[in-house]
Amino acid sequence: MREDNYKLFDSEKKVMEVLWEHGTMTAGEVVKVLRDSIGWNRNTTYTVIKKCIAKGAIERTEPKFQCTAVITKEQVQDYETNELVDKMFDGSKEKFFAAFLDGGKLSENEVKNLKDMVNRLK
Question: What is the pLDDT confidence band of residue 18, given thresholds at 50, 70 and 90?
């Protein structure tokens, strides 16, 4: 799968979130979840599912229009994070991290956890 296929629009993320949480489902089951949680109708959900299939994010199998996530949430998160760093921080993760920390709104526990993560990288 091409990395640019990890770029998902908000509507596509909603469909993917359902599959990441529940695993393989029929399109009808996805429709029910999204109808109940955010009020989408059947046509909207099927349209977004088909866009995800065309993008290679979802695989469709039969019987009953089974939908399986082909890409993981982590792949999408990595792609989105790299896009943000490239666009807003000239590709510098150091600048991104500095801007993140400069906000000054981290709890002591969050600071400790971040230090632990950095130390594990060494």
Answer: very high
